[in-house]
Amino acid sequence: MEIYRKLDGCRRRPACFRCGKKGILLHFREALRSLQTRPFIFFSLILLVKSYLAYLVIFDSGLSLTPLLTEIPFIWLLFCLIEWFATKRKLVYYLVANLLLTGIFFAAIMYYKYYGVIVTYHALDQVNQVTAVKNSVFSLMDPYYLLIFTDILVIGYLLVRSKKLTTWKRFATRREHRGVVMALFVVSLVLCFVNVLPNRASMNEIKKAEDMGILNYEAYTILSKDKFDPIPRESITQQAIDTEKGHAAPQEPSDLNYYAAAQGKNLIIIQMESFQNFLIGLEIDGQEITPNMNELMQKNFYFPNFYQQVGQGNTSDAEFVVNTSFYIPPRGAASGVYAGKALPSLPKLLKGHGYDTATFHTNVVEFWNRGEMYQALGFDRYYDAEFFGTEDTVFFGASDEVLYDKTIDELERMNAQDRPFYSQVISMTAHHPFTIPAKKQRIELPDRYKDTFVGDYIVSQNYADDALGDFIDDLKAKGIWDDSLVVIYGDHLGLPIYSLDRKDKALMEEIYGHEYGYTDMINIPLGVISEGMTYPAIFEQIGGQVDVLPTVANLLGISLEHHLHFGQDIINETYNLLPQRYYLPSGSFVSEESLFMPGSGYEDGTQYPLSGDGGMNQGASEDEYERALRLLHLSDSYVSQLRDRSPAKPAAE
Q: Which residues form the active site (predicted)?
């Protein structure tokens, strides 16, 4: 037996045979004690578990070897450096590394749940927005996400209260064998390169992060330099844009349908917060959800195949795209990236034809850098939280009721002038997470919708519709309605697929009659209303927010000869191509029959029929994919080469 002990190296081996479970328990305790005194192994196991949690949420992947092969090599690189260079405070460095990497995994989870993309260091530009959207962030947090911090809380408690702290520190300072550390470092470095290098060219950021590993992807975005070679300014012409868009030779303006049909009228653009197209005509157990919007779309020009084109800036991006007919930047909100440029815009275009211009938004003008953006767009005035007050606030600012009540007085004043006006009115109350106060709830939903994200969304949009109806009544009573061209649309999606739980998805399937998909998610309504011009008509052609400016210009009879634009008159179009950014992977676009989302490129991309009935089709071609990318490059190149604007600012009211 002694010989056996020497060969085995186990002093308690006889106990294993004599006691069974008792011996196994002793071995387990020894193994646990070994883990506690070897932070390299201890924290590797902890972070491996956390990486599996992140993969489960973001990539919807089950148990696989992927996190082990992609995340652990990066973690070991960091730990090897700690083993080499740390001495007395080694345990502190392990704790800091654990906290840092845990924060990255948690940020990746929460950002994906809100935007559907992988967070990068560029999102640090949004840190000042976090407190404003904290309710939205908290609403996306499933309780089990917080398990990712469990070890940190437990270790923190033990470090403060445990009598074994000194012993743990002493054991943790013991260095691992330098040869083993060197071998692990080399192997880990090779695996990191193997994970990163073959996947650099992938268009789909989510697939890229999955194939590289989240931590490798974050490091790659930091270390890789952005390569942007702008197209020379002289090569960016309307003809070049039209060619990429697939337009036929432009017609004479007078040959277009409805050209100048609303000439000389006021222009009122109403941007509805988070308003998706499925709300139009929706009834739940016999209750009409948006009766006022329904009536507007039934009696006027309605475009059901209309799609958002916003990005990180959400509502402010919608304001930018609609007022410029340019695409959003590759990253960041347009209001931050492009605010320093002298932007050709709808307000400037209309001011050149004698219009008075103003924009109305109940939030503070500093949010999303709107003050600078309104200056760049050339509005004469803006009305923000200072004007609307705080007597009836919901989320970011005054309620839609206050917005419309105070806006109507200003529009009446503007209408009394001897010139037309352009006003953009931004609704806000139906904002994520859609938990409006009980006193503003106008509808009682069936029990199956209560305490659900979808139910809260529908209740808030019912309120927004009710407030809109009162505004329209006021416009009519003040004599403004008949003299105005009214354009109304949703600014962006309200129900991201990646934010819905199983119950919410089941409710959406009940509403749609099919599984809620990406094409449904980015589909928003567009309505064009003008007394004496519009009539009940449904326009089935596809369009996007970039098309609003040229459509309005055609109706008002204003030439765009000297205004470069990436949209087209949606009323007269026969074909359209709509590049997408941010909420969908780079390279995504909407064409006549489908939404295309790339994989590494076109070949492994996915087609989603616009009908939303599932299945695959071949509607989006590789030529369209290449043209959509070139259109984005043309827009990025053009706006980046515009001259810097003068410091004059629009007046605050």
A: 315
CA atoms within 13 A on the CB side of 455: 13
Asked if residue 562 belongs to a known ligand binding site, the reply is: no
Interstrand relation of 393-394 and 523-530 (parallel, antiparallel or unpaired): unpaired
Please state the pTM of the whole predicted model: 0.86
Query: Contact, 361 vs 423, CB < 8 A?
Result: no
361 appears as a binding residue in the annotation: no
Strand 651-652 versus strand 381-383 pairing type:
parallel
Q: What's the pLDDT at 370?
A: 84
Q: Is there a binding annotation on residue 87?
A: no
- Cα separation, 502 vs 490, whole angstroms: 25
pLDDT, tens only, 82-137: 988 877 778 888 889 999 999 999 988 888 887 778 888 776 666 555 544 555 55
Q: Residue 44 burial by CB count (10 A; 0-12/13-18/19+): exposed, middle or buried?
A: middle
CB atoms within 10 A of CB 280: 20
How many CB atoms are closer than 10 A to CB 439?
A: 6
Where in the sequence numbering do the catalytic residues fall? 315
Cα 465 to Cα 440: distance, rounded to the nearest angstrom: 12
- Which residue is it, tokens 């019912």? 462
Distance from C-alpha of 400 to C-alpha of 362, rounded to nearest angstrom = 8
Q: Which helix (H) or strand (E) holds 204?
A: none
Burial of 452 (0-12, 13-18, 19+ CB in 10 A): middle
Amino acid at 158: L
Q: Which tokens sit at 437? A: 């106060």
Instruction: Give the pLDDT of residue 291.
Output: 97
User: Could you say which DSSP state residue 644 is in?
Assistant: B
How far is it, in rounded angstroms, from Cα 516 to Cα 514?
6
Contact 326, 633 (CB under 8 A): no
Picking from 523, 524, 515, 517, the residue whose alpha carbon sits closest to that of residue 497 is 517
The amino acid that residue 498 corresponds to is Y
Instruction: Spell out a b/e string for 193-223, using b for 16 or more CB atoms within 10 Å of the CB, else e.
Output: eebbeebeebbbbbbbbbbbbbbbbbbbbee
pLDDT below 50 — which residues of the chain? 1-18, 28, 31-32, 131-132
Name the segment(s) of the chain with CATH classification 3.40.720.10. 251-652
Instruction: Give dist(CA 49, CA 71) in Å, integer.
Output: 11
Cα 217 to Cα 67, 148, 214: the distances in Å are 13, 20, 5
CA 468 to the chain's CA centroid = 26
**How large is the angle between the packed helices 178-196 and 66-85, nearest 10 degrees?**
140
**Largest Cα–Cα distance of the chain, in whole Å?**
109
CATH superfamily, domain 251-652, is: Alkaline Phosphatase, subunit A (3.40.720.10)
pLDDT value for 648: 64
CB 279 within 8 A of CB 290: yes
Q: Which helix (H) or strand (E) holds 79?
A: helix 66-85
Q: Tally the C-alpha atoms within 13 A of residue 200's C-alpha that lie toward its C-beta.
A: 14
Rounded to an integer, what distance in angstroms lies between the CA atom of residue 634 and that of residue 602? 20
Residue 15 pLDDT: 46
For residue 11, what pLDDT is reported? Answer: 47
The answer to whether the annotation marks 315 as part of a ligand binding site is yes
Cα 438–442–444 angle (5° rounding)?
85
